[in-house]
Every structure is written in C-alpha cells, then in structure tokens.
Design goal:
A: about 270 residues, alpha/beta, Rossmann fold, B: Rossmann fold, 7 helices
Chain lengths: ~270, ~200
C-alpha cells in the first residue's frame, strides 16, 4: 500500500502546514475523523492529492477558510439530548440561582444551537438577565451563523419536541419568528451573549465561570488534547462549578477524573471538587 | 471464494492470522449476530467490533442483550478506549465508531453514510488503517448498501472478507451490494460464519 503511506505523510504535512501558517492546531485531533474529512475536502476541492490541497491552502487564505468548514463538524441541534437539559434545569439551575451573577461558557458552540437552547432555559428559570454567556468556537463562519440565530424551519419540529421533553415551559414558537424557510430567534436571547474566537487547543482561560458546556467537541480530540481542554475548564470554573459534556464524553479516563464529581452521571453533568 | 464450512478446515484454505474482527449488520441483524456469536466460547481472545444499524433515539440495550446471552465480555464502545482482546464492542447509536491507528476506539458525529450513523463503511475503513491485512471483515443481512465499500477495501488491503450468503439473509440488499464489489474470501450462511470466527481465533491466538 505505498500510496496509502504517502497519504499518511501528506496528511501530517498538511496539518503541520495549517498550524504553521494559520495557527489552527489539528495536530492532536483524532486521526481517523480528520483523515475522512480531508478526503472529503479533496473531492470537493477537486485535488488529486493532499499535497495539492496543501499547496492551495498555504497560498490562498480563502481556500483555507473553505477547508476549515470541512475540518470542523457543524452537527448540532437545539435541546439535543433533552434529558440532559432537563437535568440541568432540575439539578444545576437551583444551585446557579444562589449566585448573584452567573457566567456560562459554551465551548465549541458551532452554529449556536446549544447557545440558544441554554439561553431559553436560563430565561425560563429567571436567570438569563443576570447571566453572561461566552460562546466560543474556532470557526468564524460558524460563529457568524450563531450570531444571526437563524435556523432552518425544517428542523424546528424536532427542536420543538426536544424542547418539550427538556422541560420547556412555553410554546417553543414564542422564541422565534418564521420567515420563508427560516426561524429567526428572538434577538433578546443573545443580549448577554458574547461570541468569541477561542481554541481549546491553543488558547488559555479568559474568565472565571460557574457553568461550562462543551458537548460533542472532545470526541474529536485525542487524549492529550482532551486533557488540555479539561485543564482549561478546571481552571476557569469557580469552586464547585459545573461542567457538562456530550452524552458519550466522560472525564473517567482523563487525568482530571479525580478533580470533578459526577452530579448526574447519566447526563454527563460534573461538578468541580 | 469459498462457500462451504468444510473448506475452512482443509489444508489449502489456510486462514490468515488476524488481530481483530469487524462486523456489520442492519435489518435482521440482531438475530444474525446472536447466531454467529453464539459459537464463541469463554476465553475467546480476538477483539470483535460491531456496527449494527439501530434507531438514533434509543439508549441502546444492545450490549446488555448480548451480554446476557454470550460468554464473552460485551460492551458499548467508549470514546478513546483501548481495544481489549476478547471483548465484543458495539457502536453507540447516533455516533460513528472508528479505530484509531493506535488501536483505540473513537466516536464522531460526521454526516450519516447511507442514512446511517453509526456507519459500517466508516468502521471498516478506519479498521483497515489500524490493522492493515491483519483484519477480518464480516458483512451480514441488511436493507442498504453500507459496508460494501469498506469490506472491499479490507479485501484490497489483504484482509479477510466474509459475506453472508444472500439466500441465508433476512435482507439481501447489503450482502448483494458487497458481492457486487468483490468476490469475497468466504460466502457463507450464518452457522458457518460462527464456526469461521472460532477457527480464526484458534489460528490467531
């Protein structure tokens, strides 16, 4: 399989080139997924080899931004895993209410579905007005979409169902206006949201927080990078702050497992010890 | 291509030494998997990694169902866990399952493949990168074409390919799609596939 070996070398070189030129660090991402996404990009860019793709993105920042859309995974939905949001409402919110003001960090917020879900939940619990939400991602296009708060109407039925299962207290349609094929979300939901470019691979802690939500981001990292991210979360969270992860993500195998307790293990809700 | 279990024991059939077995199934897959895995005895020492298409929503009971019926350890694959020989892993619903080149498992939520997540193609393809020719791929009953390309790549890269005989399958689309891309090493009914796994382990361990 000589060409397979070449592809392996080329992939490493591409990732290195991206890091050197653009400071986006995919070197400690899970290899299997990165390889698939680069191969997918190869077809879209009509490049025969990864080296050809590398030449293109190295000399053309616009092409790199296009490649970045393939390298990041914008799979998200509102109130994904409703049981998770219900558990936040029941187990975390009562404790958050004891703080005079709350800072929430949504790390790897992608196109914002998670942000608006959290904002709706906090509003219904009377917390949104005294909360600051930091919504961060490495992909500027995703952040731009997140700031818009406009989502395809075809997904709204599923989101509505999720919202209700997540303990939603109103009609979901109270939060958006339908226009053509889109649902435009109430912009007051993001009055206290700061969207920012932040990388869990290269950046550091920027604020003390009470709650961090980072869901379905860490699965794309290798163990070393997962540990780096857990370190940032640990440093950012206040004493007894909350960390919530995706349904298949866990602290168990990380070097931070002893520094958090599981509050609702099933829903991946942890608390700093 | 061998189509009979008797061929397996014959000297010229010489099964290769493999480090892992990957299995894919869809419609009719639970019964098919129970049948092939029921041939396994306690102390089986090869890892088996399985994608069975299941609806997204369900918190999967697959691992429990199989653990209750099989004498080997069964579990749903966790992200970044190291593959332990002798364990039967199932992909979690809603996530693709890959094998990393350090032979750990990883999950991801990329686009569906043939409307499926987990995808058999993604498991098989990544397993080839991790195990090279020391891999056996088994594709069973199903009503779509997932797994055909992945199994073809296993064969191309020198691994062992096994397809359930479409006449024996509850849904023949999946084995037929795989057969359209290759002449497999073995085309067998379920009973014989179970025996083949036992034989593979005997030779490898």
């Amino acid at each position: 399989m000589p060409h397979e070996r070449n592809a392996e070398i080329e992939l490493r070189l591409l990732i290195e080139a991206i890091y050197l030129k653009y400071s986006y660090d995919f070197r400690d991402y899970s290899g299997a997924s990165v390889k698939r996404r680069v191969n997918h990009a190869l077809r879209q860019f009509e490049c025969k080899t990864i080296s050809a793709l590398q030449e293109r993105v190295l000399h053309d920042p616009t092409a790199f931004m296009q490649l970045l859309q393939f390298l990041t995974i914008p799979v998200s939905e509102m109130f994904r895993d409703p049981g998770h949001f219900l558990a936040i409402r029941q187990e975390v919110v009562p404790l958050l209410k004891t703080y005079p003001s709350v800072k929430v960090w949504i790390a790897g917020c992608s196109t914002g579905e998670e942000v608006y879900s959290m904002a709706i939940l906090l509003r219904e619990e009377g917390l949104l007005e005294r909360t600051i939400i930091y919504a961060t991602d490495i992909n500027p296009s995703s952040l731009e979409k997140a700031k818009q708060g406009i989502f395809s109407l075809e997904n709204i039925r599923a989101y509505t169902e999720n919202y209700q299962k997540a303990g939603g207290q109103r009609a979901f349609s109270d939060y958006y206006t339908a226009a053509y094929d889109y649902a435009i979300f109430d912009k007051s939901l993001r009055d206290n949201v700061t969207f920012a470019d932040h990388s869990l691979a290269t950046d550091s802690v920027f604020s003390e927080t009470q709650l961090i939500s980072c869901r379905n981001v860490l699965i794309y990292f290798n163990k070393k990078l997962q540990d780096r991210a857990f370190g940032l979360f640990h440093d950012s969270l206040c004493h007894r702050g909350f960390l919530v992860l995706g349904s298949k993500e866990t602290l168990d195998f990380s070097s931070y497992s002893g520094k958090f307790d599981a509050l609702v293990k099933q829903e991946r809700i942890y608390r700093k010890t | 291509m061998k189509t009979n279990i008797i061929d397996i024991g014959s000297p010229e059939s010489a099964l290769p030494i493999v480090d892992a077995i990957v299995v894919g199934a869809s419609a009719g897959g639970v019964q098919a998997l129970l049948k092939i895995f029921s041939a396994l005895k306690p102390g089986f020492r090869l890892p088996i990694i399985t994608v069975l298409h299941v609806p997204d929503e369900r918190r999967s009971q697959l691992a429990h169902v199989f653990q209750n019926r099989l004498p080997i350890p069964v579990k749903e694959a966790d992200d970044k866990e190291t593959i332990v020989p002798g364990t039967l892993y199932f992909a979690a619903p809603g996530y693709h399952l890959s094998v990393e080149t350090d032979r750990s498992l990883s999950l991801s939520q990329e686009d569906r493949v043939f409307h499926s997540r987990p995808s058999i193609d993604i498991l098989f393809d990544s397993a080839v990168d991790a195990f090279g020719p020391r891999l056996a791929g088994v594709l069973l009953t199903g009503a779509n074409s997932d797994g055909a390309q992945g199994l073809a790549r296993i064969k191309q890269c020198g691994g062992l390919s096994v397809i359930q005989d479409p006449d024996d399958a509850q849904a023949r689309t999946m084995p037929e799609a795989a057969l359209a891309l290759q002449a497999p090493d073995y085309l067998l009914p379920l009973n014989d596939i179970g025996q083949l796994l036992v034989e593979l382990e005997r030779i490898a361990c």
